[in-house]
């Protein structure tokens, strides 16, 4: 009825996207609850700025065809409610008592999800975290992985001249001679890319020295990058290893993966802030 109808006035246009006085009032009330601040001109300005940013984030999402997954929105709401020992309905009721429609919280969550996706799509190929950065981060934390001694990972090419079981001395000697000849001619790992006549070549990336049997382990550790080890004899082959690279690293796989993820997120946040700043600068924002 006309008596209860609420007049909604458009207060801000963000590239023609409207923000009403109701939107601003709702967000200000929500901020008052979450920040424990009293409603004020400063808080209203903060609410308006947040809404402008969210409009820009959602607009960028639409350009890339990104929308929020409503199941994910529901899950985040459910988690929020549980942290406060409430159901989602209970959270809605509690917000309602403070004059806040739960929709303003849902809108905020949607904008955050869309923005995360936008940033990931725009920058995931630009950001690379190297081993040296992870090592530095782990050494700097002094936490798990920081104090551990650096381990070595090897980039190897394994060359095998195989011989049949029960091969005679002449066969084995000819394989050894071929291996010695290869070692004498060897200059760089690139030489092996085309393969080796009469032998198999296998690339062993990030090989831990402990995974190699002796005496190959010792020979590989003593070889410099770009060198080939002397041939060793196993039960079925003559083997040599070309050492193409060595790197030191700290921490186990999980520790390193966690550190890499954190560095990646930090870098993403920097890119996200820059992108939002550019969107603000390019936006047409009209206050009414």
Alpha carbon gyration radius: 31 Å
State the order of secondary-structure elements, H for helix, E for strand. EEHHHHHHEHEHEEHE
- The rounded distance between the terminal residues' Cα atoms is 28 Å
> CATH H level of the largest domain: which superfamily?
Porin chaperone SurA, peptide-binding domain
Q: Roughly what is the average pLDDT, rounded to an integer?
A: 88
Oligomer: single chain
Q: What do we call the CATH topology of the largest domain?
A: Triger factor/SurA peptide-binding fold
CATH top level class name of the largest domain: Mainly Alpha
The number of domains is 2
Strand order of the largest sheet: 4-3-6-5
How does this model look, in words?
The chain folds into two domains: 10-127 and 265-287, Porin chaperone SurA, peptide-binding domain (Triger factor/SurA peptide-binding fold); 151-249, Roll (Chitinase A, domain 3), CATH 3.10.50.40. A hairpin with a 2-residue loop joins strand 1 and strand 2 (17-20). The protein is of the alpha+beta class and 288 residues long. Helices cover 52% and strands 16% of the residues. Mean pLDDT is 88; it is low at 1-5. The protein is elongated and about 100 Å long. The chain is built from nine helices and seven strands, in the order ββααααααβαβαββαβ. The longest helix is centred in the last third of the chain and has 30 residues, at 253-282. The strands form two sheets. Strands 4-3-6-5 form a four-stranded antiparallel beta sheet. It starts with 9 loop residues before the first strand and ends with a strand.
Question: How are the SSEs placed, and which strands pair?
Answer:
Layout: E1 10-14, E2 17-20, H1 21-35, H2 41-63, H3 70-83, H4 88-97, H5 102-123, H6 131-141, E3 151-162, H7 169-185, E4 200-207, H8 216-222, E5 232-233, E6 237-249, H9 253-282, E7 285-287
Antiparallel strand pairs: 1-2, 1-7, 3-4, 3-6, 5-6
Helix pairs in contact: 1-2, 2-5, 3-5, 5-9, 6-9
């Amino acid at each position: 009825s006309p008596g209860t109808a609420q007049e909604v006035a458009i207060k801000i246009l963000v590239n023609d996207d409207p923000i009403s006085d109701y939107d601003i009032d709702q967000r200000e009330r929500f901020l008052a609850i979450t920040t424990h601040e009293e409603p004020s001109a400063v808080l209203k300005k903060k609410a308006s700025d947040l809404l402008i940013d969210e409009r820009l984030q959602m607009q960028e999402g639409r350009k890339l065809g990104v929308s929020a997954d409503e199941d994910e929105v529901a899950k985040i709401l459910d988690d929020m409610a549980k942290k406060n020992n409430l159901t989602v309905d209970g959270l809605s009721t509690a917000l309602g008592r403070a004059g806040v429609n739960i929709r303003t919280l849902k809108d905020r969550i949607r904008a955050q999800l869309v923005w995360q996706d936008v940033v990931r799509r725009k920058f995931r190929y630009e950001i690379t975290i190297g081993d040296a950065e992870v090592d530095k981060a782990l050494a700097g934390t002094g936490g798990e992985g920081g104090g551990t001694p650096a381990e070595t990972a090897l980039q190897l090419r394994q060359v095998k001249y195989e011989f049949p079981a029960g091969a005679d001395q002449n066969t084995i000697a000819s394989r050894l001679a071929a291996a010695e000849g290869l070692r004498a001619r060897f200059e760089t790992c690139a030489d092996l890319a085309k393969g080796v006549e009469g032998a198999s070549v296998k690339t062993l990336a990030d090989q831990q020295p402990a995974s190699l049997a002796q005496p190959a382990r010792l020979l590989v550790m003593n070889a410099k990058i770009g060198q080939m080890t002397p041939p060793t004899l196993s039960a079925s082959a003559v083997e040599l290893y070309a050492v193409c690279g060595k790197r030191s690293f700290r921490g186990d796989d999980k520790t390193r993966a966690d550190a890499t993820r954190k560095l990646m997120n930090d870098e993403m946040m920097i890119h996200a802030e820059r992108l939002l700043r550019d969107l603000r600068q390019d936006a047409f924002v009209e206050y009414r």
